[in-house]
Specification:
Layout (H helix, E strand, L loop, with lengths): L5 E2 L9 E4 L23 H15 L5 E2 L9 E3 L14 E4 L5 E6 L3 E7 L4 E7 L1 H6 L1 H11 L8 E4 L12 H10 L7 E3 L5 E3 L1 H11 L4 E4 L14 H7 L7 E6 L6
Parallel strand pairs: 3-6, 4-5, 9-12
Antiparallel strand pairs: 1-2, 2-13, 5-8, 6-13, 7-8, 7-9, 10-11
């Protein structure tokens, strides 16, 4: 078995967390590796095994509370893992339950992990462009505040996602961002084809900073450009692949922390 590829954020040191790549899993081609998406055309048992491997790397035996993601700004509070058929339809999860891992899956969208260690509260959000402009990170912060967190104490980490150089969009894509704030033009630049390219990572970071988050860390890893490390929806589409995998990002509170 190859080793797991885990990107960790220095500001979250001491908090069980990780942005997992595709290394170390049991899934077979075309999604070989640590595919953790049940929505993929993959063997569900392989996905279950991959998720178990990822969880055990952080908190052995821990359950994963993971939502059914729908590109929304909605957030759920978890006290335990949901059965597969009963997962809430949302794109972020928060908890103050020790020993429980929160999980979201991505394949170019930005995974964001949050922690306020003083309050004993953590969160995880899936920030695609729809969720990001819709306020998924703001709502995650709000849900954490209701559990006792304070924005200035929150440390947030934005994991591997598609980089601006590979995120070409149409002119109409820019409209809602410019309507929200004309200053959002700074997150777009013209590509070689003349079409705009969107900087998702920087936009998410700006939303976090604007919400008063005390520390914001960026992984700076491009999912599109690293096929051996990460799954990418856009790369799979450009290659005409029949399906694409999803990497998982996890965060939790160590059982002994409270």
């Amino acid at each position: 078995m190859s080793s797991l590829d885990i990107v960790t954020a220095p500001p979250l040191a001491g908090v069980p967390h990780g942005f997992f790549g595709r290394g170390g899993g049991v899934s077979q081609p075309p999604v070989e590796g640590l595919n953790c998406g049940f929505g993929t055309d993959d063997d569900p048992q392989a996905v279950t095994t991959n998720r178990r491997r990822a969880a055990d790397a952080l908190i052995e035996g821990a359950a994963i509370a993971a939502p059914y993601q729908v590109h929304s700004p909605d957030v759920a509070v978890a006290t335990e893992a949901w059965p597969q058929g009963e997962r809430p339809r949302c794109d972020a999860v928060v908890t103050r339950t020790p020993g429980l891992l929160l999980g979201i899956v991505t394949a170019d969208c930005a995974p964001v992990l949050f922690s306020d260690t003083d309050a004993g509260v953590v969160g995880a959000a899936h920030a695609g462009w729809r969720g990001a402009i819709g306020g998924v990170t703001d709502k995650t912060i709000g849900a954490m505040i209701r559990l006792g967190a304070e924005p200035r104490r929150i440390r947030a980490a934005v994991g591997p996602c598609i980089a601006q150089k590979n995120y070409e969009v149409g002119e109409d894509f820019m409209a809602p961002f410019l309507e929200e704030d004309p200053a959002n033009a700074r997150f777009f630049r013209e590509g070689a084809s003349g079409k705009p390219h969107f900087d998702l990572e920087s936009y998410v970071a700006a939303r976090l900073a604007g919400a008063g988050v005390g520390t914001v860390w960026l992984a700076g890893e491009d999912t599109y450009a690293q096929p051996d490390r990460f799954y990418s929806f856009r790369r799979a589409t450009h290659e005409g692949a029949p399906t694409y995998g999803r990497q998982i990002s996890l965060i939790g509170i160590a059982p002994e922390a409270r």
